[in-house]
Amino acid sequence: MKILRWILIGFFALTAQIGAANEHSHILETFGKAGASAFVDDAYGYAVFPTIGKGGFGIGGAFGEGQVFEQGKLIGKTKVKQITIGFQIGGQAYSQVIFFQDKRALDEFTSGSFEFGAQATAVALTSGVSAEVNTGGGSGASVSGGQNDAGIASSGYHKGMAVFTIAKGGLMYEASIGGQQFTFKPL
Fold it and tell me: Could you tell me what percentage of the chain is helix, strand and coil, using 3-state DSSP and rounding each to the nearest 5?
């Protein structure tokens, strides 16, 4: 079990470094081309996570670092963490953007520690991923089909927020429970 823990730590550290090298504008452009252009153009603000690494074997976790923008201006940094329990094996990396419809939604996210419950959903913008991705994990395998193969499953904000993901690679099977927790640090 200790070996698995070190493998997961190494995987998350590597994916965090890869994500830090990407710029938010490139990520937004990719999401826009993949089907989220209305959100990219009209959102009050957004949180961009270039790479979130996720892995598990019985007990799993995810980690990523990102930036938060208000009306196009960088206002702070954010981190996402997730712990999951249940049947799961494998690892994957994905990009995630959370769009905020208005100031109230952005303020809620940046108020300190924000958490999506286990049933929160994200629209997957890659053909190789199921149409609806649960932040606590869903059932089935996820494989990246490429960033430009997208078909948007649904649209609209839920409680002022819309979450989109694009798989970057990996393979993971899971039927687990756990929500995403975010921290925010203003500049």
Answer: 25, 50, 25
Q: Along the 187 residues of the chain, how does pLDDT read in single tens digits?
A: 555 454 555 555 444 444 444 467 888 888 888 888 889 999 999 999 999 998 888 888 899 999 999 999 999 999 999 988 888 888 888 889 999 999 999 999 999 778 876 556 667 775 333 333 444 443 332 333 344 433 333 457 888 999 888 888 887 766 665 688 999 999 9
Locate the domains of the chain by residue range: 2-186
State the amino acid at position 27 in one-letter form. I
Task: Give the ranges where the chain is alpha helix by DSSP (H).
Answer: 2-21, 24-31, 37-42, 103-109
This prediction's pTM: 0.73
